[in-house]
Design brief:
elongated, alpha/beta
C-alpha cells in the first residue's frame, strides 16, 4: 500500500504542476480579470482538473503494485499519462481558442471579444488592409473602439447581420480604432446603475450597494455594462479622465 501511495503522490505532483503551468500562462497572458469571468471557461477547467489531478492519479494508484513487474507498471502508467496528455491538450486548445483578444466599446456597451469570435477570413482581411489593430497569434488583450462604419450600405449590412445572429462589428477588426478615439462617444453612453440594461432589479440593488461600499456614487451616470459569455459586469468610469476605476459583478 505504501508503494501505491508513493506512486499516487508522484503522479499527482506531476499532473498538478503541468496543469498549473498551463493555467498560469493562459491566465496571466490573456485571462486575467475580467477575462476569465466573462469568457466563462469554468466548465472546461473543471473537466481538465478532474482528468489530470483526480482520474489520472487515481488510476495510477489502482494499477501500481510493488510486486508488479516494472516493465508492465511503466506500460500501464504510460497509457494513463498518454490519455491525460490528450485531455490536457484538448482542454488547453479549447481555452486558447477562446482567449480574450479585445475589450471593445461599441455603440452603448463594452464587450469581450474572444479569439473564436473572429473568423480566419476577417483576420486575413484586417491584415491585408494593414489594420493597426489586426490580431496575431501573440496578441494580448487590448481595449479598443469598434464603431460601425460610416458607409451607410456597409453599416446596414453589419446591423442586419447582427440582428440575424451573424457577425457584428466587434468581430471585424478592420473597423477597430484606438480606445482613446472612442472616448467622446463613450462619454455620451454612460448611465446610472438603474438605467443600465443587462441587469435585473435585484442585481442593480447589489451593484449599488457595492458602489457605495467602495465610496462611489450609485446615482451618477458613470457606468456601462461589460458583457461576455458569462454573467455581465458593471464597469464604472472616472467622469473626468474616462478611465475605468472599478468593475463589479452582481452574481
Amino acid at each position: 500500500m505504501k508503494f501505491r501511495f508513493k506512486a499516487l503522490g508522484l503522479h499527482l505532483l506531476g499532473s498538478a504542476t503541468a496543469l498549473m503551468l498551463i493555467f498560469g500562462a493562459l491566465y496571466f497572458g490573456w485571462y486575467r480579470w475580467p477575462g476569465w469571468y466573462l469568457a466563462d471557461v469554468s466548465q472546461v477547467v473543471f473537466v481538465m482538473a478532474g482528468v489530470d489531478v483526480v482520474v489520472g492519479p487515481l488510476f495510477t494508484f489502482i494499477v501500481a503494485g510493488a510486486n508488479k513487474p516494472r516493465r508492465v507498471l511503466a506500460r500501464d502508467i504510460a497509457v494513463i499519462v498518454a490519455i491525460q496528455l490528450v485531455a490536457l491538450t484538448y482542454g488547453a486548445m479549447s481555452i486558447w481558442s477562446g482567449r480574450p483578444l479585445y475589450y471593445a466599446f461599441s455603440e452603448n456597451v463594452l464587450q469581450v471579444v474572444q479569439a473564436y469570435d473572429i473568423s480566419p477570413d476577417e483576420v486575413d482581411l484586417a491584415r491585408r488592409q494593414k489594420a493597426a489593430l489586426a490580431p496575431h497569434w501573440y496578441s494580448l488583450p487590448r481595449w479598443i473602439w469598434a464603431p460601425l462604419p460610416e458607409n451607410s450600405h456597409e453599416r446596414g449590412r453589419i446591423v442586419a447581420s447582427a440582428v440575424a445572429g451573424g457577425d457584428d462589428v466587434i468581430s471585424m477588426p478592420r473597423y477597430f480604432k484606438p480606445w482613446e478615439q472612442g472616448l467622446p462617444a463613450l462619454r455620451t453612453q454612460l448611465k446610472k446603475v438603474d438605467d443600465v440594461g443587462y441587469f435585473s432589479s435585484a442585481d442593480k440593488k447589489k451593484l449599488k450597494a457595492q458602489l457605495r461600499a467602495a465610496g462611489l456614487s450609485a446615482d451618477a451616470p458613470t457606468a456601462l455594462p461589460l458583457t461576455g459569455r458569462g454573467h455581465p459586469l458593471l464597469a464604472v468610469f472616472d467622469p473626468a479622465s474616462l478611465t475605468i476605476i472599478a468593475i463589479f459583478k452582481a452574481k
